[in-house]
TrEMBL record:
<protein>
    <recommendedName>
        <fullName>DUF4189 domain-containing protein</fullName>
    </recommendedName>
</protein>
<feature type="signal peptide">
    <location>
        <begin position="1"/>
        <end position="24"/>
    </location>
</feature>
<keyword id="KW-0732">Signal</keyword>
Amino acid sequence: MLNRILIAGALAAVPMLMPAAAHAQSSAQNSVLIIYGNDKCPTNSNGEEIVVCKRLDEAERFRIPSNLRDQGGPPQKTESWAVRSQDAVTAGNFGTGSCTSVGANGSTGCFVKRATAARAETRARRKAEQNLPLP
């Protein structure tokens, strides 16, 4: 009994889907193509499709798209493992030059750590400003 109801419902839904499919085939197709250098923008012979071409420089042909190139992210993901492992080397240090509250002048190491990180951020920002794509 349940199977007959399901089959009847499916058969009743088929005519409702057919006009939408026929309309989708008859509507004009629009597309945007990215072309490089002096490549020719293709034209459609049947006249029902609109083709818009966006021309980019030839140097961009085999590059990763600009919206995917520089996604940034946390700095620890862009640092090498050797740089990140330095924290493990200095984990038990205390006293002058360490970043700890134990021992005399432990805070001097914290200042050096922050100053080094700020200097690295400034260098990275300047480098990123120099690598901006030309309009």
